[in-house]
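Escalation from tier 1.

The customer reports that the assembly of two entities below gives different structure tokens on two consecutive runs. Tier 1 could not reproduce it. I'm attaching the input and our single run for tier 2 to review.
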Amino acid sequence: MAEAERRDRVFLVVVDDSPERQIALRYACLRVRHSGGRVALLRVVEPAEMTEWAGVGAMLEEERREDAEKLLSGLAAEVQEITGGLPILLIREGDPRDELLALLEEDPRISILVLAAAAAGTGPGPLIQALVGRHGARMRVPMTIVPGGLSEQDMQRVTI
Amino acid sequence: MQVYLPIAEMSVDAFLLLGIGFGVGWLSGMFGVGGGFLLTPLLILIGIPAPVAVASGANQTVGASVSGLIAQWRRGNVDLRMGGVLLVGGFAGSFLGVQVFAWLRRQGQVDLAVAIFYVVVLGSVGALMVRESVRAILHRRKGKVGRRLHAHFWMHGLPFKMRFRKSRLYISVIPPVLVGFGIGILSAIMGVGGGFMLVPAMIYLLGMPTSVVIGTSLFQVVFVAANVTLLQAVTTGSVDIVLTLLLLIGGVAGAQFGAAMGTRLRGEETRALLGAMVLAVAGSLLWGLLRTPESLYVIGPLP
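Tier 1 run:
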């Protein structure tokens, strides 16, 4: 029973354009490989800008979605290589922070949110800052923050 | 509060101008448009001479588009090389357009020409917008998207090919230069940025990916409209600093409100509304051309 429950847990990784997303993804994959579960990938696309033409707006939305699908399917192959299972792919449209919080409220499958802090710069990144700060009360699942500068050796050690 | 406009040579209520600037800025923020195509006809309707109205429209477009350009630039959505090629055509077109404008003014026909341009261009653009939106509303459930045609036609056989890395294109520079040229002429004669024609031309004619289209078109619009304002000031001396200042103050404030509302407003209804507004402006200008003037004979000095 306990074993089955462990396999059902889902690590959610937010796929943004930051360099540290790779760290978060690697951490989630290794955790799954070592102790079971699944990876979920969330990509939040920008909503289409208002334009004068409906056709242009629809095409804008369509191409953004296609780009997101291409990106996620590329990462999905990577996840499958490490964990042996296919990840859950989620695409939402809107503001990244709001959509992430809305997803956590709506989707009961998600068990843990995995974020990586920026390795350099003045802060851990806008998403972490928002989730541990002003919007912390809206979190529905525990959150793991992976240091952006974690070496591969340490990564292996802490994911056992 | 009446203010005297030194270049337009007339007195207008300052609050009316602030209000017009605010309204147009609000709409341009909400719909993501430059607003020149609404401002110029509105100014003509309250009695501002066409040359001054056109120059103010171009100036307002610069003001409304700069912040959008900066936002797109930060996200890396501007294809500089394509923008540069478009700009070469745009500068040439706006230069020619201003010369034509100055010539029309010497002939005393500039008000008529601007009005006809507006009726034709806005009439067809507005009609297309409304038709497209109505069709989209009717077919909403089907979720069909107009695909672009990946067809090769004569355009792709033209010489002077150039690689546009960000747009993932390898095409001749002639079509973008011609597109920029046409928009430049429109911009000079109508006092608009021309984004409403530039964006579809970039997607359907040049085949650019939509991700860079908005940013690159804003790039072209900002510089061409700025060039038009400058050329109008130098060539026809028709930029009224009091007028443009009042309009810009209203416009900047209005754009903030509009942009905040625009993110919540979406969909076809707003777009149909914009199309209806464009049609109404074209209609009122058409009525101005057709109705019998209050005074049939006017004596006045030639400009």
